[in-house]
Amino acid sequence: MHIADFSVGMLGANGIVGAGMPIATGAALAAQLEGSDRVSVAFFGDGASNEGAFHGSLNLASIWKLPVIFVCENNRWAVSVPATYALSVEDVSARAAAYNIPGITVDGTDVLAVYEAADQAVRRARAGEGPSLIECKTHRWRIHSEQRGNPADPRPRDEVEIGPQHDPLQILGSSLQAQGVATAEHLEQIESEVQQAVENAIDFAKSSPLPRPEDALLDVFAP
Amino acid sequence: MRELTYTEALLEAFREEMRRDDKVFHLCGGLGVLEQLIPEFGADRVRVCPISEEAYVGASIGAAGSGFRPIVSPGMMTFAFTAMDQIVNQMAKIHYMFGGQAAFPIVFRASTGGGRSAAAQHSQSPHPMFMNLAGLKLLMPATPYDAKGLMKSAIRDNNPVVFFEDQMLGPRGVTSPIPEEEYTVPIGVADVKRQGRDVTVIAISKMVFEALEAAEALASDGISVEVVDPRTLVPMDKATLRASVQKTGRVVIVDEACVTCSAASEIMAVLTEDAATFRALQTPPKRVCAPDVPIPYSPVMEQFCLPDRDRIIQGIRDVLS
Question: Residues in chain B whose beta carbon is closer than 8 A to a beta carbon of chain A?
Answer without folding.
Answer: 25, 44-45, 47, 49-50, 52, 54-68, 70, 82, 85-86, 89-90, 94-105, 134-135, 137, 158-159
